[in-house]
Amino acid sequence: MIHYLKIRNFGTIKNEVEINFEVAENQEENAYEVKMPDGRRLLKLAYIYGANASGKTTVLKAFDFLRSILTQPASNKSKSLPYDPFLFCDNALAQDSSFELSFYYHEIRHVYSFRFDKQSVREEKLLFYQTSRPSELFTRETENEKRLTKIQFGSRIKVPARERDLLESNTLHNNTVLGAYARTNVDIPELEALSRWLGGYLMGMITSGDDLTEITAGIIDDQPEIREWVNTLLNKADEQIVDMDIEEKEQYSNKFKEFLITSSFSNSVSTFAEEENSFEKTTIKRLFNPEKMTNNRQTVRELFGRRIEFVHMLENEWSFLLSFEKESSGTRRYFGLGGLLYLLVHGNHLLCIDELETSLHPDLMKHFLQVFLMNSNSSQLLFTTHNLSMMADEDFIRRDALWFTEKESDGSVSLYSAADFDSSTLRKDASLIKAYKAGKLGAKPNLGSPLIAK
Question: What is the fold, at CATH topology level, of the domain defined by 1-208+354-448?
Answer without folding.
Answer: Rossmann fold (3.40.50)
